[in-house]
Design brief:
Distance between the termini of chain A: 60 Å
CATH architecture of the largest domain in chain A: 2-Layer Sandwich
Helix content of chain A: 55-70%
CATH topology of the largest domain in chain A: Beta-Lactamase
Helix content of chain B: 25-40%
CATH superfamily of the largest domain in chain B: Response regulator
Strand content of chain B: 15-25%
Number of strands of chain B: 12
CATH topology of the largest domain in chain B: Rossmann fold
Keywords (chain B): DNA-binding, Phosphoprotein
Mean pLDDT of chain A: 85
Shape of chain A: rod-shaped
Strand content of chain A: 15-25%
Shape of chain B: elongated
CATH class of the largest domain in chain A: Alpha Beta
Structural class of chain B: alpha/beta
CATH architecture of the largest domain in chain B: 3-Layer(aba) Sandwich
Strand order of the largest sheet of chain B: 2-1-3-4-5
Largest sheet of chain A: 5 strands, antiparallel
InterPro entries (chain B): CheY-like_superfamily (IPR011006), OmpR/PhoB-type_DNA-bd (IPR001867), Sig_transdc_resp-reg_C-effctor (IPR016032), Sig_transdc_resp-reg_receiver (IPR001789), WalR-like (IPR039420), WH-like_DNA-bd_sf (IPR036388)
Organism (chain B): Microvirga puerhi
Order of helices and strands of chain B: EHEHEHEHEHEEEEHEHHEE
Number of domains of chain B: 2
CATH class of the largest domain in chain B: Alpha Beta
Strand order of the largest sheet of chain A: 2-1-5-4-3
Largest interface: A-B, 35 and 27 residues
Low-confidence stretches of chain B: none
Order of helices and strands of chain A: HHEEEEEHHHEHEEHEEHEE
Number of helices of chain A: 8
Number of helices of chain B: 8
Radius of gyration of chain B: 19 Å
Distance between the termini of chain B: 23 Å
Oligomer: heterodimer
Protein name (chain B): Response regulator transcription factor
Pfam families (chain B): Response_reg, Trans_reg_C
Radius of gyration of chain A: 52 Å
Chain lengths: ~450, ~220
C-alpha cells in the first residue's frame, strides 16, 4: 500500500524517468565505446598480421619454402605462447610448418575457430596468402585478446549502469518519501479540519518553496472560510434571536385566545392580531432574503440609466405628507437632471429607507433634509436631520442586521432598513458616510463616477 | 368568472379554490405546468393564476409558451418570498401582474378582479366619471359637482387609479406599485396618508363619500347606491 503510494507520486515518476534516461545514456555510451574499441583493436591486429605476413613473404621470396619454414619455426619457438600463429601449406595442402591445425583455402582475411588445448575453441583472425609455387602461408592473430578487453569495458559500463540505476531508485524513494511526508501533513490537517477543528492550520517550514507556498495559500483560504463561517454563524444567531421573540409572542397570543376568548368577536380580534404578527415575521424574512440576494450581486446585470433627481423627487413627495402628519418637516434640495447607472427599484428603496429612518427615529418637530447635487462631477446625496443623532461609537454598527439603538427598541421595525441601504449602496459602489449633523444624524452617499 | 389555478402545493391550492369559490368564481385547478398549459390553451378563462415553481413545466416557461401560442388571457404570476428578480422576469415573460407568496387572500382577490375586468381593448379615454366626480385625463383636472378640486399631480394619479378601478377594491400594495412605482413595503403609512389627503379634497366638502376604506383589504371608490 505504502510502496504503491510511493510508486504513484509525481516525484517518483520523475526520478524513474531520469533513471531511465541516464541508464539509457550509459548503455548507449558503453555500446559506442565497445564498438569503437572493437574496430580499433581489430584494425591493429590485422595490421600486425599483415606486417608479419609481409615479412614472411619476403623471407620466402629471398630463400624459398625452406627459409620460410625455418622462419616460422624459429618464431614459434621464440614465442610459443605468442599472439600469432602460423601455417604453411605445400602445393598439395600438406603442412610444411606452423602450429595451426588447418588453414583456409581462400586468400584474404577471415575468421576461424580452432580447438585449443583446454578443449575450448579459440577465435582467430586469419590472413592467407598464396605464394609463387602455389604453397600457402597463413598468419593468424588471437581474437581472444580483443574479447578480453571488450569484456573489461563491458564490465565497467555494466557496473556504472547498475550504480546509476541503484542511486536513481534510492534517490527517488528518498525524495518521494520526503515529499509524501509533507503532503501527508497537509492531508492530515485537512482531514482534521473536515472532522470539525476549523482552527487548525498547515504547519509551515519557512523555506518558501512550492509546498510551503501551497500550505500558506491553503491557510489563507482556511482563514477566509473561517471568517465567512463566523459571519454566517453571527447572522444565523441574529436571525434565530430576532425571530424567536416575535414567534414566541405570536404563540402566546394564540394560546391566550384559545384559553380566554369567549366570543366570536374576541376570537376575530385575536386572529387578526396573529395575522398581523405573522405578516411582520414574513416581512423580516423577506427583508433578510432580499438583502442576501442584493449582497450576492447578481442584480448588477439589470442596471439601467436612472434619473436620480426624478427618483429622489418621487420619494420625497411620497413621504412629505407622512412626515408632516407625524409632526416633522421634510425639505429637499435636488439638483435636476442627475442620471446614474443603477437599479431603479433598489435605489428608490435605498433613499426611501433613509427618509423613513429619519421620520421614525426622531422626535416631533425634527427637520429632515434631503439634498442631491454634484460636487466636482461626482454625485452626492445627503439625508440629514436635527434629531438626537447616533453616538459616535455606534455609527458603524447601524448598518448591521438587526442592530437597533437602545432608544429605538420601543419603536416598531425589524432593524433591517439600514442593512438594506448598505447592501444596495455596496451593489452600486456608493460610499456611505455617517456623520454628526450638530445636532442630529447626517448620512452622506457618494456615488461612484461609473455608477 | 372562470379562473384557472396552476399551483402544485395541494394545501395552498385547496385553500385558494375554496376561497375563490366563495367569491363566486368558477375554478379549474391543476398541479403541473404541462396540464396547465394544455387547459389554458384549450379553454376560455377570464384569468390564469400561475405559480412560478411547477413540476413538468415551470411557470415562466408556461406563460412564455402560452403567450407564444396566442393565449391572451390575463395572467397573475405567483412568486416566492424574497425573489427580487422574479417580478421583472414574470412581467417580461408575459404576465400581467405578480404577487409574492405568502399573500393575504384579499390581495389576490383584489388583483384578480383588477385583471378580470380589464377591457379587452384598451380604450383611449379622455375622461372618467363616477357619480358627480369627473376627471379630465387630458387637462389633468378633477371636478366634483362642477366644483374644481385642487389636486397635486400624485393625488391626481391616485384618484385616476381609483376611478379606473371604480367599484373594485384596490389594495395598499397595488397603489404603492401603480401610483408610486414602489416595489417594497414601506414602514410608514404612505398610502393611508395620501388617501386621507385625497379624501379631504374629494369627499370632505360633499354629502356623500366616494372613497371607502375596506377593512383588511384596501380602498374602494364607488358611486353611492
Amino acid at each position: 500500500m505504502r510502496l504503491n503510494r510511493i510508486l504513484r507520486t509525481a516525484t517518483f515518476r520523475l526520478v524513474a524517468l531520469y533513471v531511465a534516461l541516464f541508464g539509457g545514456s550509459v548503455a548507449a555510451l558503453g555500446a559506442v565505446v565497445l564498438w569503437t574499441t572493437h574496430v580499433a583493436l581489430l584494425e591493429q591486429l590485422e595490421a600486425r598480421i599483415s606486417a608479419e605476413s609481409a615479412a614472411l613473404v619476403t623471407e620466402y621470396q629471398e630463400g624459398g619454402p625452406d627459409r620460410l619454414a625455418t622462419a616460422v619455426h624459429s618464431r614459434e619457438r621464440t614465442h610459443p605462447a605468442g599472439p600469432l600463429k602460423y601455417f604453411v601449406a605445400g602445393r598439395n595442402g600438406t603442412r610444411l610448418a606452423g602450429d595451426l591445425p588447418s588453414a583456409p583455402s581462400k586468400d584474404g582475411f577471415q575468421n576461424g575457430r580452432y580447438p585449443e588445448n583446454d578443449g575450448d575453441f579459440g577465435h582467430l583472425r586469419l590472413l592467407t596468402t598464396t605464394l609463387n609455387d602455389e604453397s600457402r602461408l597463413t598468419v593468424a592473430g588471437d581474437l581472444e585478446q580483443i574479447g578480453d578487453i571488450e569484456a573489461i569495458i563491458l564490465g565497467a559500463f555494466g557496473s556504472a549502469f547498475g550504480a546509476v540505476l541503484a542511486l536513481g531508485i534510492a534517490g527517488g524513494v528518498a525524495l518521494s518519501t520526503a515529499f509524501l511526508k509533507r503532503i501527508d501533513t497537509i492531508t492530515r490537517t485537512a482531514e482534521a479540519i473536515i472532522a470539525g477543528d476549523l482552527r487548525l492550520r498547515v504547519p509551515l517550514r519557512g523555506t518558501d518553496d512550492d509546498l510551503d507556498r501551497l500550505a500558506a495559500t491553503l491557510n489563507r483560504m482556511l482563514d477566509r472560510i473561517g471568517a465567512l463561517v463566523e459571519s454566517l454563524r453571527q447572522v444565523s444567531n441574529d436571525i434565530a434571536h430576532d425571530l424567536r421573540t416575535p414567534l414566541t409572542r405570536l404563540r402566546q397570543r394564540l394560546e391566550d385566545a384559545e384559553r380566554h376568548a369567549g366570543s366570536v368577536e374576541e376570537f376575530r380580534k385575536a386572529t387578526e392580531a396573529a395575522i398581523s404578527h405573522a405578516d411582520d415575521l414574513l416581512a423580516t424574512f423577506s427583508a433578510l432574503l432580499r438583502i442576501a440576494q442584493i449582497e450576492a450581486g447578481t442584480r448588477r446585470a439589470g442596471f439601467r440609466r436612472v434619473d436620480l433627481s426624478n427618483l429622489f423627487g418621487t420619494v420625497v413627495e411620497a413621504f412629505l405628507p407622512v412626515a408632516e402628519d407625524d409632526g416633522r418637516s421634510l425639505i429637499s434640495r435636488l439638483e435636476p437632471g442627475i442620471v446614474v447607472e443603477g437599479d431603479r427599484e433598489l435605489l428608490t428603496q435605498m433613499i426611501a429607507n433613509l427618509v423613513e429612518n429619519s421620520i421614525r427615529h426622531t422626535p416631533k418637530g425634527t427637520q429632515i433634509a434631503v439634498n442631491l447635487h454634484k460636487v466636482n462631477g461626482r454625485v452626492m446625496a445627503i439625508v440629514s436631520d436635527n434629531g438626537p443623532g447616533v453616538p459616535c461609537n455606534e455609527r458603524e454598527q447601524i448598518f448591521k442586521r438587526f442592530y437597533r439603538l437602545e432608544r429605538s427598541r420601543s419603536t416598531s421595525g425589524n432593524g433591517l432598513g439600514l442593512s438594506m441601504v448598505a447592501a444596495i449602496a455596496e451593489l452600486h459602489g456608493i460610499g456611505i458616510e455617517v456623520a454628526d449633523n450638530h445636532p442630529g444624524l447626517m448620512i452622506r452617499l457618494f456615488f461612484n463616477r461609473h455608477s | 368568472m372562470k379562473v384557472l389555478l396552476i399551483e402544485d402545493d395541494a394545501e395552498t391550492a385547496a385553500y385558494l379554490v375554496a376561497a375563490l369559490s366563495e367569491q363566486g368564481h368558477v375554478i379549474d385547478q391543476t398541479d403541473n405546468g404541462r396540464d396547465g398549459l394544455f387547459l389554458a390553451a384549450g379553454q376560455t378563462y377570464d384569468v390564469l393564476v400561475v405559480d412560478r415553481m411547477l413540476p413538468g413545466l415551470d411557470g415562466l416557461n408556461l406563460i412564455k409558451t402560452a403567450r407564444g401560442a396566442g393565449v391572451a388571457t390575463p395572467v397573475l404570476f405567483l412568486t416566492a418570498l424574497g425573489g427580487i428578480d422574479d417580478r421583472v422576469e414574470g412581467l417580461e415573460a408575459g404576465a400581467d401582474d405578480y404577487l409574492v407568496k405568502p399573500f393575504a387572500f384579499a390581495e389576490l382577490n383584489a388583483r384578480l378582479n383588477a385583471l378580470i375586468r380589464r377591457p379587452a381593448i384598451a380604450l383611449v379615454e379622455t375622461s372618467l366619471r363616477v357619480a358627480d366626480l369627473e376627471i379630465d385625463l387630458l387637462q389633468r383636472r378633477a371636478t366634483r359637482g362642477g366644483q374644481e378640486l385642487d389636486l397635486q399631480p400624485r393625488e391626481f394619479k391616485l384618484l385616476e387609479y381609483l376611478m379606473r378601478h371604480a367599484g373594485r377594491v384596490v389594495t395598499r400594495t397595488m397603489l404603492l406599485e401603480q401610483v408610486w412605482d414602489f416595489h417594497f413595503d414601506p414602514k410608514t403609512n404612505i398610502v393611508e396618508t395620501h388617501i386621507s389627503r385625497l379624501r379631504s379634497k374629494v369627499d370632505r366638502a360633499f354629502e356623500t363619500e366616494l372613497i371607502h376604506t375596506i377593512r383588511g383589504s384596501g380602498y374602494l371608490l364607488r358611486a353611492p347606491e
